[in-house]
Specification:
Length: 407
């Protein structure tokens, strides 16, 4: 049985084609499309050790999905003769609101409800829907599953998820913290504990999913109890194009001075701010580090300092929330691949008993411990695999609903 997993981020698409057989998952094809919206977007795909690498113009996610379908059916670089060989499609959907607390089979009713949540995740849900609809048109008889990024954070206590607005806005509009990157936070926490031989139900863990979209999560005994993203993915850390936490009074001041509409403010905080807003160069951390370190660009360095400072601040706060810490995990595009950022974040945590090993930290996209042997808190790099989590949910739901025979 072949399962295609589609994971659309704000500026990227990750995808995997799994073969499920005898209760085991193996990867047939794995790929990424990065820097979507830029003329020098990067496509990388690996099939049976045969690699495809292209730099092309990918103006939007629709174009990216077309490249994806071409890639998996390519005679040299793909593994399918025809996309009709796909049995199930799994989709990462960012915002499930209060409606979706667990994964679901996609129906027209589900699509309608997800579309109603677009305003809550304007950088993600539209792309998630686009992927679902494109593949529905291509493969109308192939069942699709939606796995929601916000589901893992349903265990947050009220004091963590409530805002200081009048309570009636929570009752009427569901205004509260939902949190995101839940699929990744849950996966890397479990994976790290398995590698260490730990029982996750006995541990206090902070996971840092750092990429173009970034968030931190406090996990107590396997359950999310606090996370940095909120009602929308804009809250929390400074990100590629998003503000992260800001004084709402400042936003109102800008709106008043510039006579901005809600739509213009939405664009400002989600697409024009964050790293690209500070640097004026790029939302990509690789470009920013090059500008800061090789060209001496002060605004690029400021952006790096702001990013790492805010991650460090959240780690400190969440250690207090957890009343201690056993494990600190870095994952995501930046978290897995950027030794400089990890080092800058982890400096001066000796007072917590976290001792960082700079030599061990010189690693990219590899599961490993980056703290010293004497460190009381273990720090690790863990490669995430949200697609595998989604694939497992696909099989579980397909078996439950008995839509097709699963062996």
């Amino acid at each position: 049985m072949k399962i295609l997993i589609l994971n659309c981020g704000s500026s990227s698409i990750k995808y995997q084609l799994f073969l499920y057989s005898k209760k085991n998952f193996s990867t047939l094809t794995k790929g990424t499309i990065e820097r979507i919206g830029m003329k020098d977007a990067i496509i990388n795909q690996v099939t049976n050790d045969v690699s495809l690498h292209k730099i092309v113009n990918v103006p939007d996610h629709k174009t990216g999905i077309e490249f994806l379908l071409e890639g998996i059916t390519h005679k040299k670089y793909g593994c399918l003769e025809d996309i009709n060989q796909i049995d199930i499609i799994g989709n990462r959907v960012v915002h499930g609101g209060k409606t979706f607390k667990k994964s679901v089979i996609i129906t027209n009713k589900v699509i309608k409800k997800v579309r109603q949540l677009v305003d809550l995740a304007p950088l993600h849900n539209p792309h998630n829907l686009k992927g679902i609809e494109i593949l529905q048109n291509k493969l109308p008889d192939t069942p699709q599953v939606a796995v929601f990024d916000s589901s893992f954070h349903q265990t947050l206590p009220p004091q963590a998820y409530m805002y200081g607005f009048p309570y009636r806005y929570y009752e009427k509009f569901g205004i509260r913290k939902y949190g995101f990157h839940g699929i990744s936070h849950q996966y890397v926490a479990k994976k790290a504990c398995n590698l260490l031989g730990w029982d996750i139900k006995e541990k206090k863990i902070i996971t840092c999913h750092l990429g173009n979209g970034s968030s931190v999560c406090a996990i107590n005994r396997g359950k999310s109890i606090e996370t940095s993203m909120g009602f929308t993915p804009n809250a929390g850390l400074l990100m590629g194009t998003r503000t992260g936490n800001v004084d709402l009074g400042a936003l109102l001041h800008i709106a008043d001075k510039k006579h901005y509409s809600v739509k213009q403010l939405n664009k400002l905080i989600n697409k024009e701010s964050g790293l690209i807003g500070i640097t004026g160069i790029s939302s990509d951390m690789r470009d920013i580090e090059h500008a800061a370190h090789d060209e001496g660009n002060q605004r690029a360095q400021l952006a790096l300092d702001m990013f790492t400072y805010r991650v460090k601040k959240h780690i400190g706060a969440y250690t207090a929330v957890l009343e201690g810490l056993d494990l600190l995990v870095f994952t995501g595009g930046i978290g897995e691949n950027d030794p400089y950022t990890r080092s800058k974040i982890c400096r001066n945590f000796n007072y917590l008993g976290l001792y960082f090993d700079e030599n061990k930290n010189l690693v990219k996209r590899k599961d490993c411990i980056i703290s010293t042997e004497s460190s009381k808190i273990i720090a690790m790099v863990i490669t995430t695999n949200e697609e595998l989590v989604i694939a497992k949910d696909c099989i579980r739901l397909i078996k439950k609903e008995k839509l097709i025979a699963v062996k």
